[in-house]
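Incident review: delayed structure delivery

Summary: a single-chain prediction request sat in the queue longer than the usual turnaround. Root cause was a stuck worker, restarted by the on-call engineer. No data loss occurred. The affected request and its eventual output are reproduced below so the record is complete for anyone auditing the incident later.

Affected input:
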Amino acid sequence: MIERIRHIEGLQSARLPADEYAVVHSAWLTLMGMRPNGDLDLIMSSRLRRELFSKPNLEGHLGLPGPLEQRIRIQPMNSPYGAFYGARGIDDVIRNYCIEIDGVHFIEPRFYFAFKKQRLLGLRASRCSLPWWRHTLMYSFGANRILTRKISRDERDFAWLDGFFDRSGHRRAEFQHIPDTAWGLPDRDWRPPS
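Output delivered after worker restart:
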């Protein structure tokens, strides 16, 4: 199932200890059949970060050393993932809130959905500072155009997620080992307001 994810072979060839990292971000959308991921994003334990990097930048993004350094990206230790659903930091998320799929650890999908909700709400707040007529793609340009596209993409993703769960896509055979709580069900508290 994970062969659908771009750059997964590079991650597997790095032979990282499976219990010291987790795949995050849009890899979930790829697994769910929505769209391909761009980069492959990870969170990494503080221990593994210290082992891999002589001067680990705890607050910045890093590339996984090797040929895919620009494509396999490591999120900072202060990533929002470490604060959702009662988690006590990235190390706690990696130890207690991950799911194994084909030998690779993934963060529980509800964490990604909560991250996406937080990002969308921040993007919407940024758009509110713009004049109303710049809220559409037709009248936006430069950074505002990028902002408008990101908002549209995230809103489209949430509409797709609603359909996925309404059609019981999470009940497919490949997802049977994932409990409803890891999806953020039944309440879908990760769903942003319209």
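Verification: The chain has two domains: 2-107, 109-183.
Action items: add queue-age alerting; document worker restart procedure.
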